[in-house]
Amino acid sequence: MLTKIIREEQIQKAKKQVEECDNFVIVTHLSPDGDAIGSSLGLYHFLTEYGKDQVSVIVPNDFPEFLKWMPGTKDIVIYEKYPDFAEQLIREAEVIFCLDFNAPKRIAALAAPVVAADAVRIMVDHHLEPDGFCSIVMSYPEMSSTSEMVFRLICRMGQFDLLSKEAAECIYTGMMTDTGSFTYHSNEPEIYVIIGELIKKGIDKDAIYRKVYQVYSEWRLRLFGYVLYEKMKMYPEQHAALITLTRKEAARFNYVSGDAENFVNQPLSIKNTVFSVFLREDKDYIKVSLRSVGDFPCNQFAGTYFNGGGHKNASGGEFHGTMKDAIDTFEKGLMQFNPNNFEDLNKHIEI
Ligand code: 5GP
Ligand code: MN
Question: Is 127 close to ligand 1, i.e. is its CB under 6 Å away?
Fold first, then answer.
């Protein structure tokens, strides 16, 4: 039996919408990751099993190849490719589930139609400080992932039996990817109770790991070698590391979306490193990824210097300017927002 984390009144409100409505849209954040796609498709399969035939998942832009094996991905509507169709679905929806994000700006161009829609908006999310654009707000930052919340929501609605193997595969993928394969934000014992239940539904967790993490191209592996050897700068005094990648370098390695996934985590495997930042030049901005260990809140760093946010130990943002200026901003930030100033640092380093 799982602890009742989501408040009963929220469950009842969501349950009523699910029972009474026929037309559902599920939206998730820009550059969807494993949890965004996993939670959305988990809920999509559930609603479909429930007997709802008008259920659409809409994402702002495309998502990485390594998530495309997931059951249901072919039915996902990519707003960038089909804006008119997506807007029509949003206009007609009775309920819009907002998964794995908590502020309209995180869904980019989808924000205007979603906020303007007549539908009841239901947020299911685990990021800090939700904006008030949904009438039902399930916001639980202590959860490992939005996928875990979708599992809990389905169970609490009394519908565990309707959770199919396909839904279980998607939910597991979201939980696995949002916790670095259960290496961070994953100390709650109930996570493993849930995994047990998902395995009973027939998922092969080892196969899922391989489908997500062991399907890279040769070029991706060479790019990985290159950035670690040539582009990683250590800041030992601050227990920090920075990796940068320009568009020119990415092109040299035939970069495709998703190839730089996980690079940001690697410097944390170096002893005494508690903060890692990755700057990647994209079309018209620099994408910033940040990771930390312990109490150092990289989401605050992201918010202060890179117009972003996220979780305490995993966050992101963007920088509009040159790579050189982005690096300067990071270095300036590191002096002001120094990991040495955080009391629990000694727990995570050895002197
Ligand atoms: P990633 O580095 O994998 O892109 O992002 C890690 C986490 O940071 C995401 O799960 C998301 O919560 C958050 N995040 C990423 N980019 C942004 C951003 O531009 N703004 C905000 N507020 N959060 C972000
Ligand atoms: Mn998430």
Answer: yes
**Alpha-carbon distance 237 to 300, whole Å?**
20
Burial, 187: exposed, middle or buried (Cβ in 10 Å; 0-12, 13-18, 19+)? exposed
The rounded Å distance from CA 93 to ligand 2 centre is 24
Q: Tell me how long the chain is.
A: 351
Q: What is the CA radius of gyration of the chain?
A: 20
Pocket lining: 258 vs ligand 1, CB cutoff 6 Å: no
Q: Name which of 196, 201, 176 is nearest 186 in CA terms.
A: 176
105-151 residue pLDDT tens: 999 999 999 999 999 999 999 999 999 999 999 999 999 999 999 99
Angle at 245 between CA 241 and CA 248, to 5 degrees: 160
Nearest-angstrom CA–CA distance, 213 and 226: 19
Which numbered ligand comes closest to the C-alpha of 145? 2
Q: What is the distance between the alpha carbons of residues 290 and 333, in angstroms, rounded to a whole number?
A: 13
Rounded to whole angstroms, the Cα distance separating 339 from 175 reads 28
Tens-digit pLDDT profile for residues 42-63: 999 999 999 999 999 999 999 9
Q: Does ligand 1 have an atom closer than 6 angstroms to the CB of 289? A: yes
Amino acid at 146: T
Of all ligands present, the nearest one to the C-alpha of 315 is 1
Both structure tokens of 188: 């709650």
- Is the CB of 318 inside a 6 Å radius of any atom of ligand 1? yes
As given in the structure block, the two tokens for residue 73 are 């991905």
Q: Which residues of 252-280 are buried (b: 16+ CB within 10 A; e: fewer)?
A: ebebeebbbbbbbbbbbeeeebbbbbbbb
Closest-CA residue, ligand 1 atom 11, reads: 310
